[in-house]
């Protein structure tokens, strides 16, 4: 089992969702929350005094659907939206809007390549090509033509996907914002992710004195990380 560099009683858990807590699925809607995961997360949340958060590229509403009532805080769309506690409204950053012409061309391109999925977000979009690997070059050429950098956006690499998101928004900033609030404040963040987009969260957690881990570097896959969570929930060293 990957060892924490400090007592678990001192930590806050900040976790990515896709590829970390759940296995990657062909489409965002088809992921499956494995049996036992909810119980382990609820146990850990209780032991941590509530200091459990999800830091995800998904909108907050999707986390509410898959993990209803579990995380205390949720940072959605890489930090575009942040809900600091279950009973407060999410705060959205003031960001540039996606051009309608980009959305239209993305939909037209997806129609030419069955298996491509266009995931629209409040301040961005994701072009998933896991179901149509042959579409990758066409999608890259399309986003390159848009010249998104001139409008305050960047194209972020992801697993079998290209994500268009606003500049200055990343999971590292989301980790820092979550850790400013109770019940996270004063604890050491443990952030775990699985993708290029998670590296900012990994680095931020380390800079704050905590731990940042990445699948598959520190855990072979999501199943292995879920097993680690299960063992952590049963660990007897919480007060050490």
Describe this structure in words.
The chain folds into two domains: 152 residues, HAD superfamily/HAD-like (Rossmann fold), CATH 3.40.50.1000; 67 residues, Alpha-Beta Plaits, CATH 3.30.70. The strands form two sheets. It has a seven-stranded mixed beta sheet with strand order 5-4-3-2-1-10-11, sandwiched between helices. A four-stranded antiparallel beta sheet has the order 6-7-9-8, covered by helices on one side. α1 crosses α7, α3 runs antiparallel to α4 and α5 packs parallel to α6. The protein is globular, with a radius of gyration of 18 Å. 30% of the residues lie in helices and 21% in strands.
Quick description:
This protein has 240 residues and is of the alpha/beta class.
Structural class: alpha/beta
Dominant shape? globular
Mean pLDDT, as a whole number? 92
Order of helices and strands: EHEHEEEHEEHEEHEHEH
Low-confidence stretches: none
The fourth-level CATH homologous superfamily of the largest domain is: HAD superfamily/HAD-like
How many domains make up the 3D coordinates? Answer: 2
Q: Count the strands? A: 11
Please summarize the sheet with the most strands.
7 strands, mixed
Sheet with the most strands: spatial strand order: 5-4-3-2-1-10-11
The radius of gyration computed from the alpha-carbon positions, rounded to a whole number of angstroms, is: 18 Å
List keywords for this structure.
7 helices; Trehalose_PPase; 2 domains; hydrolase; alpha/beta; EC 3.1.3.12; Trehalose 6-phosphate phosphatase; 30% helix; 240 residues; HAD-SF_hydro_IIB; Rossmann fold; Alpha-Beta Plaits
